[in-house]
């Protein structure tokens, strides 16, 4: 079956998700600052009648932020999502979603009690039919309107503090492009003024957890619109690659025969229109990207600035990055030295881990190498290579987690750039997710990587996983309690022994009877030392 025919057949399936829930994108919800839609299963807000969740006040982190953003009350993304909503659904158990109508990642079933582990595979290990299906799914997402979510086309102030809602429909694929833009856009300060040193998804500790959630949500939306519960995002292992081996018409689109900046007309990606790529235009107008089409995908791999990115990353650079023991360090931004996160993101030299923003390594190197839509942060998700790339970056993050087994406390609780502390909610996701919730092994989130797979756990081990995770979080307290208990035991033992010695020192007349009466005549008293 041709890709076009497959995409046409898939279009009849149901769509879905992510950013402002359609049910909350109205004047009443904005003025009440409440987003607690009913669950279809019982008609109650957050499925409360079925004990799935309840409408709760949002608890915001009060931890101090770093100095990178010297403003307060000027950006809708501060203390997300409180400028729009201060009450949302808090789901119980394994339930999740803006109305608690879904299961947490890694669970399924009517009561979300069944565990499911899916495997992400190398795109070059897919069969032809599997690869064609993946490409068709991408095209379907680009042509399927989201039924559950809309995007904001104005700031809260431009919405007259909620009394004039400004939202727009968007297709499923572009919904994620818009979210990536919204998290990384500049702060609009009025007039023609903007603040550029702000990013809720990059250049700080949340970079890896944020993109982990992004991919999980993207994966789930594809599963929903296709009905394919087993779908997973493939990855491109770009280590030691000589060129862009996925840039062919068989995969992600080859080069145009006459214009090297465009995609080959033989690829249906050549007909895709990009959005959210004109950041300077939005800044000058003090406006948000409204998802208007802005032209075709641009890509000219390898014809980038070689002084900045001479080649694609090597295996040796990835291995050095994995050897770094600190997840984050110093200023916790793109100037951080010896930081695993900053080195993997690409702002630190992948051979020394010293910050060098004049060069682009690892993650950043691939974006620059693509030399087109992928190379501009806010609009980079327009190119479908983005998901292949970030799936592999996430696999490197996963390798680091498995190698170093960090406690949750390793992720910074305070003084990170705005939006990146452990308990901060990630912008712009609704339902809400905290950065720290995704600083854990992927198997606990229901997925693995083909090249990292370990033997399957038996049912007893699966049962123990949540309890072992709790023990891992409190092991320091357990060790402390054991030490204190040992000291107390030693002191008590010493006191008991001392008392016994003292007793032996008393006269024989007051010593207790040690034998039965019939043996009494055989007793011999011994001198006490």
TrEMBL record:
EC number(s) in its UniProt entry?
1.14.18.1
The UniProt keyword set, sorted, is: Copper, Glycoprotein, Melanin biosynthesis, Membrane, Metal-binding, Monooxygenase, Oxidoreductase, Signal, Transmembrane, Transmembrane helix
Which residues does the UniProt record annotate as the domain Tyrosinase copper-binding? 202-219, 383-394
- InterPro entries according to UniProt: Di-copper_centre_dom_sf (IPR008922), Tyrosinase/Hemocyanin (IPR050316), Tyrosinase_Cu-bd (IPR002227)
Q: What class of enzyme is it?
A: oxidoreductase
Location(s) in or outside the cell: Melanosome membrane
Main localization (coarse): membrane
Q: What residue stretch is flagged as signal peptide?
A: 1-18
Give one GO molecular function term.
Answer: tyrosinase activity
Instruction: Specify the domain of life of the species encoding this protein.
Output: Eukaryota
- Names of the cofactor(s): Cu(2+)
The answer to whether UniProt assigns keyword Phosphoprotein to this entry is: no
Q: Which residues cross the membrane?
A: 474-498
GO terms, biological process: melanin biosynthetic process; pigmentation
Q: How does it sit in the membrane?
A: Single-pass type I membrane protein
Provide GO CC annotations from the record.
Answer: melanosome membrane
Transmembrane helix is among the record's keywords: yes
Question: What protein family is recorded?
Answer: Belongs to the tyrosinase family.
Protein name per Swiss-Prot or TrEMBL: Tyrosinase
